[in-house]
Amino acid sequence: RPGGEAIVQSVVRDSPKASQAIVQALDSRAQDIMRTSGELSGEGVAKLLREDLDNYVADVKGFYGSVKDRALKAPGADQVQFDYDGLAVEPVLKRLQANIQDPTVLQRFVAQAQRIRETSDSRSFGDLLELRHLVNDFKFNKRITSAKDYDALNEVLTRIDGAVKQSAELVLPDSKQWLTDWASARAKYAQMMRTQENVLVKALRSPNVTEAEVGNRLVKHIQTVDGTLEEVLSKLPANARKRAEGAVIKTLVDKTTAGA
To answer: What distance in Å separates the CA atoms of residue 213 and residue 234, rounded to the nearest whole number?
Structure first.
């Protein structure tokens, strides 16, 4: 649905109390998509991938963005600064990086770690919320198997959440409601990522989804450090995996050629 993301953002901005209704609607949408993806085959899967999934993703991102915007546009939000060093993110990043052996994964990790470090430049409320999102990506990285590293990331997230709560209480008159909505927005975003991954697996098994659709969808995931692309491909049979990998390569080549 074109413009869906903007519509959701507008509704939540104008009426924060509408958030709960949107959360319930997003829950129903996720369940419908998962049920439908299990029942469809052939062209029906292609339609689900092209339309229903994209609309659902846009609405979830719209809700997440609207909750974030309410905080960033609050009077005094630009005056809030957080203590990056006090969150003790850097020691965890260095330890995680030291444990990565795969050069490709390491390259993505370094790029993502740099994005985290950049939030320490202005240390604004917006940077703090972005930091929370980025560190959470690391937590769900399929390549992180050490319980010690996982616990360390949880500890960092707890410190960040404490800083978010403190900042919200300083600048938001409805901080209690906003913190509730912020927790819901994060939960719906995580649910969306899981739903998208499962539908991708179903779609990539279907011979009726075109190479272009496969390639474009997967290229959106290829840069993520959380292992989404690898997780999706690992669930495919050999012939489907080969087709998916070929589609990604073709899409990347086409994009590069178009930009030359």
So the answer is: 19
Residue 15 gets the label, from left (phi > 0), alpha (psi -120 to 50) or beta, of beta
Average pLDDT, rounded, for the chain: 75
Comparing C-alpha atoms, which of 194, 168, 155 is closest to residue 37?
194
Confidence (pTM): 0.65
* More confidently predicted of 134 and 250: 134
Least confident residue range of 97-106, 111-120, 205-214: 205-214
User: Which class for 39: exposed (0-12), middle (13-18), buried (19 or more C-beta within 10 A)?
Assistant: exposed
Of residues 252 and 79, more confidence is placed in 79
Q: Side-chain half-sphere of 28: how many Cα atoms within 13 Å?
A: 6
How far lies 83's CA from each of 80, 115, 128, 248, in Å?
10, 17, 9, 41
Residue 215 sits at the vertex; the CA angle it makes with 2 and 222, to the nearest 5 degrees, is 95
Q: Which token pair is 141?
A: 């990285």
How many CA atoms, within 13 angstroms, populate the side-chain half-sphere of residue 160?
A: 26
Torsion angles phi and psi, residue 104, rounded to 5? -65, -45
* Amino acid letter, residue 44: G
For the segment 40-98, what is each residue's pLDDT rounded down to a tens digit?
444 454 555 556 677 788 888 999 999 999 999 988 888 888 999 999 999 988 888 88
Query: Are 75 and 239 spatial neighbours (Cβ–Cβ below 8 Å)?
Result: no
The dihedral over CA atoms of 207, 209, 210, 213, expressed in degrees to the nearest 10, equals: -150
Provide the terminal-to-terminal Cα distance of the chain, rounded to the nearest Å: 32
Residue type, 237: P
